[in-house]
Structure formats: structure tokens, C-alpha cells
Amino acid sequence: MENQNLMLYKLIILYMLDRIDEYTLTNAQITNFIQDKGYTNLFNIHESISELIDKEFISVSTIRNTKHYKITNLGEEALFYFENRISNNIKQEIREYFKEEKINLKNESEIIADFVYNEHSEYTVKCAIKERRETLLDIRINVPTKDMARSICDNWRTKSTDVYQYLVNELWSKE
Questions:
Q1: What is the pLDDT of residues 67-97, one digit of tens each?
Q2: Going from the N-terminus, what domains does the chain have, and what CATH number goes with each?
Q3: pTM for the complete prediction?
């Protein structure tokens, strides 16, 4: 019975990642949905995610200490064969969750900021805005301190649209 339950949790995760399209979901987003619905505990969620990564059904990337998950082609294929094991009720709950949280899910996937220590003893900050599979803006800035890098990343989510508009307006102006 436990193996069947773990399989269901894995299928739920795959279904969520498949339905979010070309975006990613964070560990917190997946965990919040599954725990809020009372499907299982944190341990089983993490075990399911770990096994999905090991089997290469999902890929993981880390952006500023936050894990982002994306379904792979192998994961899509597995879901195709076993999706019928997810009840229509669960599928509907996932769709409703995405509808209710659409802005949050979209924003976390489209507005990216991270920094790394570089070979010039500075920090390179990468800020990006993505829409669907297209990159609208990708900026890299070198700054002297970790605090500056962290501050730029923290402010990027709230100021990215203004920065984008400013750059387009300034570079498009004919003066």
C-alpha cells in the first residue's frame, strides 16, 4: 500500500509540473499544495521528489538557495502512461490551485535573480525576466560586495518591470 501511495505522490508532482507548462515550480509550492490538501507528510514528499530526480523524471535547478523543478521528457512519458491513476478530483484540485495562485506561480518562474562570486574578487549578479520560453531581459552586473549583490537580488522582483520599461524607453528614444 505504501508503494502505491508513493507512486500517487510522484504522479501528482509530475502532473503539477506538466500542467505548469514551461515554468518551474519550487519545492515550497509543491509541498504547500500536497500538505494543504492533506495527501501526505513532508517526508513522503521529499522521498518522492528525490526518487523522481534519481530516475530523471524531473530536473532541478537551484536559484538563490531555492530549488526549482521541471518535468523532463522521461517524466512526461511516464505521466502519459500512468496519469489515469490520479483521480479527477485531485486533478481538479491542482487546476484550482494553479488558478488561485497563478500570479505567484508565474512570478516566481519568470523573474529570476541570483549572484556568484567571480574570479575578479567581485560578485556577478544575474537578473532576468522570462516570458514563456523567451528571455525578455538578461542583465549581469558586477558589484564589489555580497551585501550589494544580495540587495539587488532582493529588489529585482519588485523593481524588474520598472527597470525593463526604463531600459526600453531610454534605448528606444531618438534623442
A1: 889 999 999 999 999 999 999 999 999 988 8
A2: 2-108 (1.10.10.10), 110-172 (no CATH)
A3: 0.68
